[in-house]
Design goal:
Layout (H helix, E strand, L loop, with lengths): L1 H7 L21 E4 L9 E4 L3 E8 L3 E8 L5 E6 L7 E8 L10 E8 L6 E3 L1 H12 L3 E7 L5 E6 L5 H12 L11 E5 L9 H16 L5 E6 L7 H21 L7 E5 L12 H7 L1 E7 L1
Parallel strand pairs: 1-10, 12-13
Antiparallel strand pairs: 2-3, 3-4, 4-5, 5-8, 6-7, 6-9, 9-10, 11-14, 12-14
């Protein structure tokens, strides 16, 4: 058997995994979890912040591929009844039951772990797993349960292609940046100016794009500041102009008025001493903060 030769040629780090079938190492029965043939219900969910592709495995849990904006993809096989200790596992791709006789391929050596995530695969093995499913392979996860049974969890490629295509389109529409890159933005200004630089406009476009994508953002606070050049009343007016310039630009980009909170502080709260040009430049700023 091709898979037996493949398994025995590698070092898999757990004695029971050398055996094929897996239950030849164990006394007692083997247990397999899989969707009934024809009932495989792959589901895609997503927006510009997250894409997910999942399959519920009856009596076991949920298998899902997932990727967040500006983050690498991963795969999780969650188990409803969580294990209490780490269990070594192997993941491989095998021909589907309706195409017997082909080779099987090792995808990863991993483990089933305590906690809600169970079995976790980072980007590279997750991408291999996804590719094998897309090519029509059945993917299997094998480990020895805490009770000594040989456990196999199977994911079928049946009904996968259409949902996979939707998932790929979702991935292509993810934001190229995440919340951390827009949570707080600092825009700098020239002396006596409230004109937005090209770099400031680019950052504000990212802020607005994120606000449109994430309904959890409840408030966008805009605060204007100046250096200590000029009188207090003049500096207050300059900081007000800067804050309103930023707010108006965000409004023009589609950020709702109800989300915006605009204030200005003049020379208060400097981030650097005003006794150098560098310090003054750092203090001529508007700070934009997003709150969820």
């Amino acid at each position: 058997m091709a898979f037996k030769r493949f398994i025995t040629s590698g070092v898999l780090g757990s004695i029971f995994l050398y055996c094929w079938p897996i239950n030849s190492c164990l006394a007692g029965i083997s247990v397999e979890y899989a969707s009934p043939m024809g009932d495989e219900n792959w589901r895609m969910s997503g927006n510009r912040l997250r894409c997910g592709l999942s399959l519920t495995v009856p009596n076991y849990g949920i298998a899902y591929f997932e990727q967040y904006a500006a983050k690498p993809s991963h795969f999780i096989l969650s188990k409803w009844q969580q294990v209490e200790r780490r269990l070594p596992a192997v993941v491989f791709a095998a021909p589907p039951v309706w195409k017997p006789g082909g080779n099987s391929y090792l995808i990863a050596k991993t483990s089933v772990n305590p906690g809600e995530y169970g079995l976790y695969l980072p980007r590279d093995p997750a991408m291999k797993l996804l590719t094998y499913l897309a090519q029509g392979y059945q993917t299997r996860f094998q480990y020895q349960s805490e009770q000594g049974f040989a456990v196999t969890v199977s994911l079928s490629p049946a009904n996968f292609q259409k949902v996979y295509a939707k998932y790929q389109r979702c991935l292509g529409n993810l934001l190229p940046f995440d919340y951390a890159s827009v949570r707080e933005s600092i825009l700098l200004f020239n002396t006596d100016s409230d004109e937005l630089s090209d770099a400031a406009k680019q950052q504000l476009k990212k802020v607005a794009e994120y606000c449109r994508a994430d309904p959890m953002v409840k408030r966008v606070k805009v605060a204007g500041y100046t250096d200590d050049t000029g009188r207090k009343s003049y500096n207050n007016a300059v900081s007000e102009g800067r804050a309103k310039s930023v707010a108006n630009y965000l409004l023009s980009l589609g950020v709702q008025q109800s989300r915006l909170s605009v204030t200005w502080y003049g020379v208060q709260n400097p981030v650097a001493p005003n006794d150098t040009e560098e310090g003054k430049a750092a203090n001529r700023r508007v700070v934009i903060k997003l709150y969820k």
